[in-house]
User: Which sequence fits this backbone?
């Protein structure tokens, strides 16, 4: 098992109903792909940055995403904080244990 470290930030959107977007940035595109294999769900490789994963959802989905990220070391209070801005949560870190694709076939 390897660990990949990512830096994340949430963007609040108030388009009639509440909507949020999050980005997790890793050191390499390979690390992002490995993290995606663990996070799954609504996470996708970012359209413009292959080292990043992106997520979009409404309030109920955000609650689930926060719970998931807390399992990987994120500070749940920072994720959707409005301490410094009503547009962005505070930056947060995650550490995800992954099994690289080349090792997955060994199990």
Assistant:
């Amino acid at each position: 098992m390897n660990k990949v470290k990512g830096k994340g930030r949430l963007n609040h959107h108030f388009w009639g109903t509440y909507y949020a977007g999050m980005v997790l940035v890793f050191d390499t595109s390979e690390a992002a792909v490995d993290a995606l294999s663990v996070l799954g769900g609504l996470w996708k490789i970012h359209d413009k940055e292959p080292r990043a994963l992106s997520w979009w959802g409404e309030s109920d989905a955000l609650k689930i995403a926060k719970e998931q990220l807390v399992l990987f070391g994120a500070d749940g209070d920072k994720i959707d904080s409005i301490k410094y801005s009503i547009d962005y949560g505070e930056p947060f870190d995650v550490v995800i244990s992954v099994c690289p694709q080349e090792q997955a076939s060994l199990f």
Notes: The helical segments are 29-39, 59-71, 76-79, 101-104. Residues 2-104 form one domain. Residues 59-71 form the longest helix (13 residues).
